[in-house]
Amino acid sequence: MKTAVLSLLVASAAAFAPVVQQTHSTVLQAHPYANEVGAQAPLGVYDPFNILDGVPQEGFNNLRYIELKHGRVAMLAFTGYIVTAAGFRFPGCEDIPDGIAAFPAVAAHEGGTNVLLQMMFFFALAEIVNRDIPGTGNEHVGDFRNGALDFGWDKYDEATKLKKRAIELNNGRAAMMGITALVTHESIGVSILPGGYLPGH
Which of 69, 104, 110, 158 registers the highest number of CB atoms within 10 A of its CB? Predict the structure, then answer.
């Protein structure tokens, strides 16, 4: 009994012992790329797998170039997917299904192999032409004007240019997620389009 009382007294005395307070900062750690285009609220630099840790500026620029290219292609793919799902076709292609089912249908169609070869040729040509040529006055990664094209870009002030670059980057990010969702849902047979329409079926 005395042991039990003594244990209770020691335990209750421990409740009044000073406790070391640990402070946790809610301030986000400064990231070396926190001021780059695309590092925006609310996420800032979103790098959950720490891919950018120790990456030099040249490596970051390469990753940004890849992100921009994939975003631009995804915007075209998403638009093409939605347009064909709405029923629009090139003349002579009315019997070609929409969605991913279009590729085998085109290949099986008379002259379809030539169409697919033309597509591959166009992709290769676009890859060759759409690149940064050093010494042509390009302002940033992904600027492919190369001193030849200017649709009014030089008339914008710096703030507007940064805003438009951020818009393109975020639209590309959304399009990458969008086309991935459309293709995935078509593959599993679940529609996410209005009216329950399922392309390719």
Answer: 69
